[in-house]
Design brief:
Shape: elongated
CATH class of one domain: Alpha Beta
Helix content: 55-70%
Low-confidence stretches: 275-298
Distance between the termini: 56 Å
CATH topology of one domain: Glutaredoxin
Order of helices and strands: EHEHEHEEHHHHHHHHHHEEH
Length: about 325
């Protein structure tokens, strides 16, 4: 629990909520219900062990903050995530209702653990220690086979390091889930492309050999798909999608729509993760608190490329 004033509000609430949800508790010494709610909130914060931070605001001393949040009665609690108010409640709720309110918004302990594993793994990968990253993900998956985040990262890293049999075995349980998550279907399509290159003689062809066949017959879809898979294995994703679009343009239903499924898989693999909210996010909170001045926001080049190819697919299908 921290005491918040105008002096530390930006740092302790706005900036802090970018990584950990902050429950801002407006109270006053004369408020009768606050005397029962305050200790309950502190008890819940301790039980939740870091899942959120409790920030207390004495409304008598910090009237500017209370006014900015539109506080009309005490006690009032406002939950901030990513620098923005997302929900709140007034009155001295019982402990069960407080937890029910928090659980609607806070990540579960399992999600927090998965996030921690992902962050540690990324640090290991950034340092080039891929084996330690694999070990970390493998341990997380062994401890919790339902950890889909760890499974996805584990299979993706196995594929990236050429361990195709291990990747296929680790991917198999995810493919049994209904509905099948698109990201796991994407890994399956990538894995199939790499297996094709490793086992089919055409996987060793130069691209010019495919081009010669396609020049003779624009509808040689087998050659086009094989070429696309070779391009995927080489990491030339845009060229692979261009080849797949040529098939879709001529026959949308060919081979049970495999070219479309492969195209969508590539888009899924290339889509960058959503960025975490940053302290520089322009605008105001829902309560009208000015955060920062207007900033120019530039789209990530890879995200722009993915968006462009999504539009190409949509135009081709229509």
């Amino acid at each position: 629990m921290i005491d918040v004033t105008m002096a530390n509000f930006e740092q302790e609430v706005i900036a802090a909520s970018m990584t950990t949800p902050v429950l801002v508790y407006f109270w006053a010494p004369w408020c009768g219900p606050c005397k029962s709610l305050g200790p309950l909130l502190e008890k819940v914060e301790a039980e939740y062990a870091g899942r959120f931070t409790l920030a207390k605001v004495n409304s008598d001393d910090e009237q500017q903050l209370a006014t900015a949040f539109g506080i009309r009665s005490l006690p009032t609690c406002v939950l901030l995530m990513g620098g923005r108010p997302v929900d709140g409640f007034t009155g001295a709720l019982p402990e069960g209702r407080i937890k029910e309110f928090l659980d609607k918004h806070l990540p579960s302990e399992g999600e927090l653990m998965a996030q921690a594993v992902a962050e540690e793994t990324q640090e290991l990968m950034d340092s080039g220690d891929l084996q330690s990253a694999l070990d970390k993900l493998g341990d997380a998956l062994a401890a919790d086979p339902a950890n889909h985040e760890a499974r996805f990262d584990y299979v993706k890293l196995l594929i990236s390091t050429g361990q195709l049999q291990e990747a296929e075995a680790a991917l198999a349980p995810a493919l049994l889930h209904i509905p099948l998550q698109l990201r796991f279907e994407a890994l399956r399509q990538w894995l199939q492309a790499l297996k094709f290159v490793a086992t089919d003689p055409r996987g060793q062809w130069p691209l010019e050999q495919f081009d010669a066949l396609i020049a003779q017959n624009k509808r040689d879809f087998d050659a086009r798909l094989a070429k696309a898979r070779v391009l995927m294995a080489d990491g030339d994703w845009t060229a692979a999608m261009d080849e797949l679009l040529e098939i879709i343009l001529r026959d949308k239903k060919w081979s049970d729509e495999l070219p479309r499924k492969t195209f969508i898989a590539i888009l899924e693999l290339l889509t960058p993760p959503k960025p975490k909210a940053a302290a520089g996010t322009p605008g105001k909170t829902a309560a009208g608190i000015e955060l920062v001045g207007a900033l120019a926001v530039q789209e990530d080049p890879q995200a722009a490329m993915v968006s462009a190819y999504r539009r190409k697919l949509s135009m081709t299908l229509n």
